[in-house]
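Lab notebook, design round three. We kept the backbone fixed and only want residue identities now. Task for the bench partner: fill in a sequence for the structure below.
Input structure tokens:
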């Protein structure tokens, strides 16, 4: 009896290992040694309904042209169609293993995003955040039509949070994206199907912190900055809505948020022209990107005439003055032909601020 009990336990442990592998086209088998001692997959407790798939069991073909759940409840299929009870990850994120209640399992191929190869042929730089530094604004067309989504390409809000800082000139600094008030540690999602061009840490990107840049089939690039960490790598295909990292406050950041940018050929434009973050929706499936939109003064809500006027505005040049012994805000303002109130506005300081020798005071011209 003592010898029988361990034998029974061993058989119970190894029984799933010998379960038959059934795929649509071929039966794949592995050695006993590899199944026992090879890399095991991790159970993910989600549910997959198998649609438009042919499953083979006991040499019987069952075509799921209709809802498989309804078919499982039909008397003629009862006992023939096993119930899916769980899924397993594999080394390929576009392939899952479905477990059934009768001990069988099958591979399920998940459709990959349709990302053409040619999008990685142009200015494909993976070690720097910006790839199009040699393309000038004047070289771009007056308008470009971008298809954002269709029946095969989807979209997803990049982070669950409202806009806390818009696309604008902020203290003489171009804030070339929007800051979304995403809670620390919450997921960051790919806005559209695409391929990872950049996945770089703070030590390389500086102000962006841990950042991911995705390139999309229409030529658009989306930036996701300040993350605690990212979970994708350069060259990875990603689907809209796929988690690419988690919200943080790395880089030049005053608190947890997602800095999200939209760029075309390296030129940024207001992401709110594409997304209505307040209501969590895409504004339209097709977007006409006008050359005027690349101005930091051009933003969602303006008329075409207002955008054209905004594009004519010149961003002031900013220089730094180093405070010397005896300097005051008044003396610095007089020396540079400006006012104390403007100095305070440019530097976000109070008129009562006590200056320190060596401090930088920024002047706009």
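Proposed sequence:
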């Amino acid at each position: 009896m003592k010898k029988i009990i361990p034998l029974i336990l061993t058989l119970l442990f190894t029984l799933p290992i010998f379960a038959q592998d059934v795929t649509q086209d071929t039966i794949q088998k592995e050695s006993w040694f590899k199944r026992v001692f090879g890399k095991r997959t991790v159970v993910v407790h989600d549910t997959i309904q198998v649609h438009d798939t042919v499953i083979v069991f006991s040499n019987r073909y069952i075509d799921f042209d209709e809802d498989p759940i309804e078919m499982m409840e039909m008397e003629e299929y009862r006992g023939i169609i096993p119930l899916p009870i769980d899924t397993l990850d594999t080394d390929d994120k576009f392939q899952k293993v479905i477990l059934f209640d009768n001990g069988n399992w099958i591979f399920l191929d998940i459709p990959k995003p349709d990302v053409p190869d040619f999008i990685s042929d142009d200015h494909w730089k993976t070690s720097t955040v910006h790839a199009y530094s040699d393309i000038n604004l004047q070289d771009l067309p007056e308008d470009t039509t971008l298809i954002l989504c269709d029946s095969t390409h989807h979209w997803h809000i990049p982070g669950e949070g409202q806009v806390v800082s818009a696309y604008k000139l902020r203290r003489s600094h171009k804030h070339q994206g929007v800051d979304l008030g995403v809670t620390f540690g919450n997921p960051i999602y790919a806005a559209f199907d695409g391929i990872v061009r950049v996945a770089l840490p703070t030590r390389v990107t500086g102000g962006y912190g841990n950042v991911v840049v995705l390139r999309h089939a229409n030529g658009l690039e989306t930036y996701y900055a300040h993350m605690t960490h990212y979970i994708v790598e350069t060259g990875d295909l990603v689907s809209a809505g796929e988690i690419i990292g988690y919200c943080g406050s790395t880089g030049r950041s005053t608190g947890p948020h997602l800095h999200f940018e939209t760029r075309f050929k390296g030129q940024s434009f207001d992401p709110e022209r594409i997304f209505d973050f307040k209501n969590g929706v895409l504004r339209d499936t097709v977007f006409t990107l006008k050359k005027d939109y690349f101005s930091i003064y051009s933003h969602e809500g303006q008329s075409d005439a207002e955008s054209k006027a905004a594009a004519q505005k010149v961003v002031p040049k900013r220089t730094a003055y180093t405070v010397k012994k005896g300097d005051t805000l008044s003396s610095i303002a007089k020396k540079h032909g400006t006012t104390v109130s403007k100095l305070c506005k440019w530097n976000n300081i109070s008129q009562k601020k006590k200056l320190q020798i060596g401090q930088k005071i920024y002047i706009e011209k």
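Keep this in mind before ordering anything: The domain at 117-312 is CATH 2.70.70.10 (Glucose Permease (Domain IIA)).
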